[in-house]
Amino acid sequence: MSEMTFGQTYAALDEKKISTRKDPVYGPVTVFHDVVIVRENVQPFPIDGQMLKGYKSADQLEQYWPWVDGRWAIAGRHPDTPVIVKPGDIAGRTVNPRFVKNLRDHGKTERQNIRGILADLEVFNDRVAPALLKSLIAGELPAVSIGFLYGKDFTPGKWNGDPYDFVQTNMFHDHLAFAINEGRCDYPACGIGADTLLEAKCLNDGCQNREVRTMETGKEPVETDTLISIPNPGVDGCEDSKSIALSEGDISLVVCGDENKISAFVFAKDKDWTMEKAVAWVEENQEGAADLLATRLEVVAAADAIKARAMEHFAIPEEAWDVMNDAARTTMIAGLPDETPTVGEDMSEDEVKAKIVELQQQIDAFYESKERADPVDYSEVEPLYAEKNAYKEALEELIKKRVLDETETEGKDAVDEVDRAKRLLNSPRLVREIINPHTKS
Fold first, then answer.
1. Fewer Cβ atoms within 10 Å of its own Cβ: the N or the C terminal residue of the chain?
2. Is the pTM of this model over 0.90?
3. Rounded distance, CA 35 to CA 92, Å?
4. One Pfam family of this protein, by short name (predicted)?
């Protein structure tokens, strides 16, 4: 195959726009400079059961930008409430905001004539998962989304050829969500590295798609500025292929279709791989590569097993999840809250009671096994007490639910017997007989 070099410009995160520092309050901080957080545009908004288009005008953004300075940022999602109210949601802040008039008109004229707001995003390293921070630095999670309050002026019009139903007014900034899958103003229009054009020089038109799986390997090893690809001589090229990362940004396998045949081994040059080292690795590991791939596929399958939970937690649509790469999926999964099974879940009252009796018997057996004169290490039995108490709480909830269900009648809401008893005890109409404990009956 003859070698041809192609050039291509593309939006990407420039490593020169990343810095680090130590904050006296927040500890280590990674700063992403010149993040496009919002620009003048027309966007869809669901309002009163219908999808309307709202216009963010340059005049409103020019009034908006000062409120961005020092406001909190949240990782992976927007908060559960319209504004940030939980300290645990804070993962960074925006600083150094400024209103600019030279953002690129992406997808249309490509001229630098759009107005918007740039800010520096400070990510608090100790408040985000290491994998997420790594993906941010690698440019794999560039999308951002602002959380803000605004009014509506339902005066329709057009901006830049796009019709809108209302103008957003009195905009007030609350937070910035980063490391999200997709924002309303999506990358490269807004985001980390947005509006920064880099130039790629690729071998054999490889820059049409910069992902590993699109490299044209032919039958000879191929080396670009960033990657080395060694073809698997026993497997012909395939149209339907995918890239499976064998290690963290180090070695990847180009795999054919559903048969999972390895067509090429790809090595990252920024991990100190040379053509000589790559060829030697393939010669040594080629026979066992299928086993390495099988192990890696098990890991990927395990990640896919919690796909539904990740999609639900981060509100990611099916089609968006399917196009995410392994690194981005792993980042989302790492950000999921711990899934601790509820004690007593899917158990009946009798089963929970039996479990409590069983735990009490274990506690009794523990004390019976100790001699009276021996010192007792209570740390050995504390987990049993904790588990027993958890089941007792579960039993109380089951009984409460049963009582509510039994007191429910048609057309009448269920009565919470516990709350009802408390109200009766506090009622001044309830006649009470004072009992003197020192008086014998």
1. C
2. no
3. 14
4. DUF2213
